[in-house]
Structures are given as C-alpha cells and as structure tokens.
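Budget justification note: compute hours in this period were largely spent on complex prediction jobs such as the one shown. Inputs:
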Amino acid sequence: MSKILIIEDDNFLLEMVAKAGKQAGFDIDIATDGEEGFEKTKNGDYDLILLDLILPKMHGLELLKKLRSEKIKTPIVVLSNLYDKETIDTANSLGIKDYIIKAQSTPSEIIEKVKIILNKKDSLN
Amino acid sequence: MYHFFKKNLFSSIFLLPLVIVVSYPSPVYALNIAARISDQSTEINGGDRLYFEVEIKYPENPLRKDLRIEYQILEEGELVASEKVLRAIETQASFLDYIVVPKSARGGIHDLNVIITDYEGLHEEVSATFRVLKGIDQVTTYFFIIIGGIVLVSMLVIVQILSGRHKRVS
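Corresponding output:
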C-alpha cells in the first residue's frame, strides 16, 4: 500500500482529498503547516507528497528547497491556487512531478493523478 | 530636559533615532472578512456539521501571513462551541470549513462568529446566523418513542387483564 503525505492547511480540502485517497487504497498521513510537513517528511517513508504552497510557519517552496538540500527525493506534487509563471517555474526547477491548480480539480481527480505518477514510478522500478 | 540632552549629547544622538524606530508602529494592513453559511446549513440539527465559507481579502499584504482563525457558536450570547485553525494567506483566500454544532444545542437562532487574529495587533470579527431545528439528537428521539410505545402496550395489557378479571368475577 502506497503511503502519501498531504501537507495542506485548508482543513475541508484536506479531509476531502484524504478521504478520496483512503477510498483509493492509499495509506494517508497529514500535516497542516510547513514545519510539521518538513518534520514528517524527514522522519517518514512516503511514496509521494501532496504539497500546498501557502502554508503557515513555512512556505511550500521553502519546504521544497529544504527537502532537496537534505537530499530527500520523495516525489512531490504541488497542490496550489497560485498559478503565476514564476511560482510554477520555481516549483518545477525543484523537481516536482506535477503542479495541480486546486480550484480546477476535484479530490478524486487529484488522487487519479497521484495514481498515474505512482504507477509510472513502479513501472520504472 | 534641555540640560539632560546638553549633558548627554552623545547618547541622545544615538538614542533618539532608536526610540523613534522602536515606537514606530508596524504597518497594519486593512483586512476584510466575510462568512457565509451554506444553504444546506442555515437550518441544522444539533450534532450536525455547520458548513460555511470564509472569504478573506488582504490586498495590501505583500507577503505570506499566518492567521489564527477561531470559529465560535453562540447560543443566546453564550459560547457553546469553538474551534481554532491556523491558516496562511497572501492577498486573498476563500475556503469552506465547518464546525460541529453541539448535540445539546437548544432549538432556535444561533450565531457563528469568525474571529481572525495574527501574532501582532490584527483582530477582525464577523458573524452570521443559523437556526438549530431541534436540541436533542435522533437516538434520544427514538429512545423516547420506544419508551412511549412500551408504556402504551403495557397499559393496554393491564386494561385487558383487568377487564378479563372483571368479566370472570361477574
């Protein structure tokens, strides 16, 4: 069973995506701010991380940079409503697997994308 | 005062700008909030989730800001439930959230308060109203219905027995 960490401060969205993930058979863990997300990522063994950008305590991009500087290579999918080119380019340059605009995706669509990424990862291994 | 500054000219030159810097207030940007209770939640039972939308506009805010948001349910002005969340925003945010209405809530109009504060001097508050339809939950209702049924059946049985005895005696 793939283990996914969702780092999101929108409780309602977090609950919906976590529910869709559990229904799809994933083992779901959650964090509601950047610092908690960083600690969980360092100490946990996740197959994928769903990461919001505007997070309390630590911005998602800052968290991404810290993870990369610590050589943590867990696949990351950004989940944000920011869609300016600079933010997307910065996130892509830090090696994210996908950039999902929250307002344009339902929780089940988000989980479908996660499935595709994990299937690709499994087929490469 | 004049003599103090004259005597301590050196320290005054350095201290005065410091005092000005320390006493200068940090910029407070205008923040607007709105809370809207979803159509399904304007009339709700005790124990149910009250869904609402919070809209925050903070156009002058240049950076990410952490906001402490508290949701409160007030029953005749008395706090009966509260929930705290921490959220980060930039210039604006709009999100759905919920709070569970206590099972013990009495029927009638209640207030939902949304209070936003930060780690400095920000304090904004907005409220919306909703109606609690009934104060007791369904399990309690079913319990009373069953008890009522048992009492009714028992009375019928007793009446039946008594009337049977009466017939035998006569």
